[in-house]
From TrEMBL:
SUPFAM superfamilies in UniProt: Periplasmic binding protein-like II
Domain of life, source organism: Bacteria
Region Disordered, annotated ranges: 266-291
Keyword presence, Signal: yes
Protein name: Polar amino acid transport system substrate-binding protein
Length: 291
């Protein structure tokens, strides 16, 4: 096992255009299919608990997806990994395409649109949605349908699945660049509702005075995974082989349960990244969520 050489450094928010124009800092070609053997690998995280973030006390990367990335890329495959924070969700995939990092470890949901720009490892964590609202939930909102014509100021993370779903449902909303910003909007009275992954809201704002996280709900099957450059087929194959072993042995759950994930968040048996990229989301929802 290699000695850890993690370095976490905050990167300023950059536009997608700016990211594409900058010189790459990832190794740009991923793995060669023969294991890391000390090869450098740069991984991007996004500051959203409990998936991946920088611990304020230690300054080290942490979170469920980081634990999985360290176990597979570093401990099992022998890569020399560097983990960097990208504070703007919208920059994660452009930064991958620009070669700033080789892998995104942020629990990113696999969607058709994202699959046009990145490749995904096999499914890892199933998500549900919730709302951050004023304590007592005075407008009694529980689902996206409740937001339609409600006249509320709603925010969602830019580029997140919740924003896309609300666009499909015709729900007016603004977007923010980070989960912290969304929480600040509701806490400061600039928004009535912040829509985000339920486990993130519970972890980041569940005990905040004057605020409340509504009960979680599944609008559509949403499953997160690690994201890669499409050309890094060997690296993806290496990763998926180790991921499969972790899932089959139950070690995967052991890695992520420290961060609040349970058997309920494990992906349905047989579900693949290819299905999530190519098939109708509603049909997948009916097939797997009602299974």
């Amino acid at each position: 096992m290699k000695q850890k050489t993690h370095s976490a450094r905050a990167m300023g928010a950059l536009s997608a255009t700016a990211l594409l124009a900058l010189t790459a800092c990832g190794n740009g070609d991923g793995g060669d299919g023969d294991g890391g053997d000390g090869e450098e690998l740069t991984i991007a995280l996004f500051g959203e608990e409990p998936y991946s973030w920088i611990d304020e006390e230690t300054g080290e990367p942490t979170g469920a997806t980081i634990a999985v990335a360290e176990e597979i890329f570093e401990n099992r495959l022998g890569y020399d990994i560097t983990i960097e924070e990208e504070p703007d969700w919208d920059n994660l995939i452009p930064g991958l395409a620009a070669g700033h990092w080789d892998v995104v470890s942020a629990g990113m949901s696999i969607t058709e649109d994202r699959c046009a720009e990145a490749a995904f490892g096999e499914p890892e964590l199933v998500y549900t949605t919730a709302f951050l609202v004023e304590e007592g939930n005075p407008t009694d909102i529980e689902t996206f349908e409740d937001l339609q014509d409600a006249g509320l100021d709603v925010v969602a993370l830019s580029g997140a699945v919740e924003s896309g779903w609300m666009e499909e449902e015709g729900i007016d909303h603004e977007t923010v660049g980070s989960a912290d910003d969304g929480i600040d909007f509701v806490e400061g009275g600039r928004a009535d509702v912040f829509a985000l992954t339920a486990i993130s809201l519970e972890t980041m704002a569940g005990d905040m005075e004057g605020l409340e996280v509504t009960d979680s709900f599944a609008h559509e099957l949403s499953v997160g995974a690690h994201a890669f450059l499409p050309d890094d087929e060997d690296l993806i194959e290496e990763f998926n082989a180790e991921l499969d072993e972790l899932m089959e042995s139950g070690e995967y759950l052991g890695l992520v349960e420290e961060f609040g994930f349970t058997e309920d968040e494990m992906p349905p048996s047989g579900l693949t990244a290819q299905e999530l990229c190519e098939e109708d989301p509603q049909e997948l929802t009916e097939e797997y969520l009602e299974d």
